[in-house]
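REQUEST ID: PR-0412
SUBMITTED BY: lab tech R.K.
PRIORITY: routine
TASK: structure prediction, single protein chain
INPUT:
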Amino acid sequence: MAGTALGMATTLVGSALSVASSAAREEMGLLLGVQDDIWFISDELKMMQAFLRAADGARETTGVLKAYLELIRDLAYDIEDCLEEFMVFIKHKNLVQQLLSLRARHRIAVQIRILKQRVQEVSQRNLRYNAIKLTPSTSSDFRVDMGLTQNLAALYVEETQIIGLDKQKEKLTKLITKPKVLEKLEASKSGPRVISIVGMGGLGKTTLTKKVYDSKELGDMFDTRAWIAVSQSFDPKELLKEMIKQLFGAYSLKEFLEEHQGQVLGVRHLTDHLRTRLKERRYLVVLDDVWTIEAWNCIYLSFPEHSKDDSCVVVTTRNHKLAEHCSPPSHIHQPEILEGKDARSLFLKKTNKRPDDLENDDRTKEIVGKILNKCGGLPLAIVTIGGLLANKDTKEWENLYNQLPSELATNPSLEALRQVVHVSYNHLPSHLKPCFLHLSLFPEDFEIERKHLVNRWVAEGFVTNATSRTLEEVAESYFYELISRSMIQPSKLDVLGNVKTCRIHDIVHDIAVSISSQENHVFLVEEHTSATSTSTESIRHISCFTKWKLNSAMDFSRVRSLTMFSKPLQPIASLCSYEFKMLRVLDLKNGEFITEQQDIRNISMLLHLKYLHFPCWYSHIYALPRSIGNLQSLLTLDIRKSAVSTLPTEITKLHNLHSLRCSRIQNDDRAGVYFRRSDYGDWFCDALSLTGLANHDTRNDANADLHGAVSSCWSYSSGIKLPKGVGRLKQLQILEKVDIKRTSRRTIEELGELTQLRKLVVRGRGASKKKCKAFGEAAPKLSSLRSLNVSTKDYVREAGVLDMLVSFTSPLPCLERLKLKGLLQQVPAWVGECVSLVKIDLKYCKFKELGALAQLPNLIQLRLFEDAYDAEKLVFCRDEFPKLRILRLQHFRRWPLTREVTFEQSTSPNMETIYIKNYPLTSGINGIENLPKLKEVYIEGGMLAKQDMLKEEAGRHMNHPVLQIQRCLPPITEESEATVEVTESISEQGESSQS
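STATUS: complete
OUTPUT:
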């Protein structure tokens, strides 16, 4: 485990060195008589850093070395903690006088001198015990180019699907689609057919099943489908809710929950609902990664005893007994390991090599054969090792081969695979190791957002800045490096091919948890965790997967991050205390609980906080405390879905803030129905908080709604009023949502000073002309802006913020995403000059023509919602939309004016997907044969003329695109045009049933 200690020590020493260098330059250090000591510590850290670089190339991993590296790691933690505390104190003017007192001066001086003494002792230990002989490093850690790794990420999604799985796919598909040969066997058993796919982790069970699940053949056969990730520990109720959502739609789940509102919703309610609705449907459900027979029995109750013919459940598992329990022998499939040619093809793909490279180099060919022999045909092992060896020379391949466990060649057991992945971890560059271990904080099978992960890495101090890039951009390069090395798996991609979410393979996750636990780095609170199961003296990170109560006997003084995935058994306010004085990350994003106003009253005690994310679940918070300004180190503040309507002036003191995301949750402004004057509202807020007539949750809910409504003057906007002085937040990169109406004109003008801003979300409903003009003058100054989202009133014509967009004096050169909601009527001319635009969403704009949008050279996705386009014909003319791949036309409330969509010759040469919903296309869709790369056409609801002709054109198309037409009314004749208004209600009913 010396490699683990080395990686952590290297990262922490680098982080501590950065803090020490900053502290040494502070004049207060001279005043306290410790400046020389801090400089000494800084110089010693530089020597330690050089030592660790040399240690990274050493082959010896003795117990002495491991112990020495752990000393360095712990010392670096303590140095950073002490000096950051020193830096935080001197930044607070109201505390300077305290520092000048004799007691404070003495305490700080003693702490720093003790650290100096420890540094000296650690340095002497290496000489005394000769922990390592410094030799030239043979490591060739590399940092993958951003563009290259993004392409690799997109490739990873399909790589194992296209190599060596065709025969297995065919076999599994026959099991699912051709059950008649097994009728005698099936007759003796009620319920749906159950097919089990069993094998060890990393064998490719999920990959194979996913390829079959996504095939067109299965898509046409079943009425509804669902893919459910089960994992070792799952919540039956949440799993069944997810099944309802996937099988019948999110709206169906919402209706079901509303019907049972006020009741104690149990598993029985959910299973009964599923059994009833599935009885008359032909369904396919995949249960991925089922671990126990008990788990299977719980889920199986959801399926009706007498399912419709051909309904099928597919189970993937590592447990052979479970497979035999679920399925008869003929319905059990064991994926095969990759043989010779297929294994080599996959390995070469991951290492960026060609077959010719092996034929022309006997040495390389020999080492490839040896590596593949030891990988034993396991796809995960091949992909992991292949990703590790990419862009490295043959010598390094040989070095790595010598470290692979020999037992993998003859006994590809789970433990052997763990060792293979562990080798990959040990070969990660030092800057990636803490990033990888950080993934252990997330539950198994959890889908992790890239941006969430990146912001956390920055807050944790895992990222060192580069002169030409932001911390977040450097962190993203780390993220893609881990993908290129196959340590994490891309899950969802955006239209640009960037990874939106990722997952970590179960085995890889197990290894991350194992390493983190052995290093006493992470404390995971799971179902059977004991408060005394591990020493918390040096725990730095806590992650709660289940309900847990903090033990007063535990030491939390060194904890740096606290992550919640469940409801705490004590108030959140107890976390905002001096017990967590060194906390840098408080991440409640995925906690399924409601935060109260009193929970954040002591948030200012967490002076080292860099990342603060309140739950996305819901919040009763209606005001940030003024003491929020004390959190001088804060980088990320996310308080969306709260009742906060106004930010305090003290927020402008947070000069290091990178991301400020605030929005009011919109509850149809229920409070505004009852109260129109703020004085009555305030009185009612106070009275309600004292009365016992309502239960606790109801009082807090109403209290938050009323406070939010009163403070916003009954505004319907989801935006937030910004305080004067926001222009001082020079590091800000993300700002949402700004309420232009309630924010002062002077403050709106200050927005133009935020030159580092990457994303801006604005709500301009009801804003005055002066404020709209101020925004129109400020926005063009945001030269780094990549995403702009501007919304105003839906239908009513008002000279507002969108009108100011037309008068922009210059384009936004870096703009990639643009969302406009409100009446605009013409495309602003400057939009045509935004050559970086790749995604545009429009709503209520009522454009008569798309104008400048058609000539955008990099536009990939265009989505037109609800009256965005307001003409009878939508024609894509010759040489327009050169890069457009995705077109979405969608209406909800009523049918639009458009009756025809036409694609002329030589238009949209890259168009792949067309999605049209609730459009009365009485003249049909014409010219799809002019779209050479077309893959999919989906038409749902509304009306569609010339359906047979469209099907014929799709059939003749050289690409054979998928054509799906659902719930479209028959073609309309001229005589029936007058019935359009009547049939609109039919369209709305169709939408409701779909949801």
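NOTES: The first strand starts at residue 193 and ends at 198.
REVIEWED BY: pending
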